[in-house]
């Protein structure tokens, strides 16, 4: 039986690692030093900056150090928590060839030259687009620590980057930080973005972009919850010529308030609160949120009608609707105190009956019931009949009301005759 003889091993033998298997050391400071050295040679020549960044991408690892690259181009060095520049390393930690080193007196043409630097860089290295979008969110969280002048410069650039689709508009929502909101820094920065946009592209373009990205729904989150802050919010928009955007906010705020009013009523009805208590709560809320009576009475209609499980048979649903609505005539009457509110309610009934097939023949009985309960008055019914506020099903509903309208007309004429005789 043969024995296996071990082969001799040379002592001190070194196993050479393949270069491709070596893990490269993470060295953002070395990357920073290289970039700063290259940028410093370019000074304020934007064509030279773009040429340098284009060529350096083949030597420097942009994919790995992309966040540091954008920090350098914006702030001049690598940003660390607290919004300051890292001073580690032996080389110069800051370059003057950056956005924050541009003149404090904003020159839009210079800022647009910087915009082109970023566009060319990300067009050449597409993978930088995602890195850039993420890093901007981080940089925006540092606005508290930047100087007022640097915040202005950054707000201009954010406007330019949003308008050229380098970053989405909703990136600004990251400013919704309790400290930034409390000190009005988030709101001021946002208004600066709006102001530069209005100045360069016009308020119509700004309005369109805000609507497209639903930014108006986020505006409330930029306001500290105090009356003084709400006044500051309105004043800031008005002083900067942004009344059109303020209107968007007000519309959004009103929509939210109306939803809350509807929830308040729905909860009150489900909890079987006394009607007087419900009316008081609704009036206080509507007054506070500036919801007008004609808007409130329509919300009441929608909410009340949603409370019932309606019969699917047309011949039965009419009587069911009248019985159901009679329970709430006091509620409707409390908010139908003027002709506009009465007409709005009548039109709401018309729209509902037209849109819900089983209610087509219920219109006349509902309106007569509201008339008898003194919710909708005679002059308003005649006004609705004569004028075309809503043509949907109008002729059919007028035909339904024919006998009642004739009765009203005759009663009115008899009243006039009695007055003349007296």
Automatic annotation (TrEMBL):
Pfam families: HEAT_5MP1_2 (PF25504), W2 (PF02020)
GO BP term (any one): regulation of translation
Gene3D superfamilies: 1.25.40.180
GO cellular component labels: cytoplasm; membrane
Family from the record: Belongs to the BZW family.
Protein name (record): W2 domain-containing protein
Family annotation (PANTHER family): BASIC LEUCINE ZIPPER AND W2 DOMAIN-CONTAINING PROTEIN (PTHR14208), PROTEIN KRASAVIETZ (PTHR14208:SF2)
Signal peptide span: none
InterPro entries reported for this sequence: ARM-type_fold, eIF5-mimic_regulator, HEAT_5MP1_2, W2_5MP1/2, W2_domain
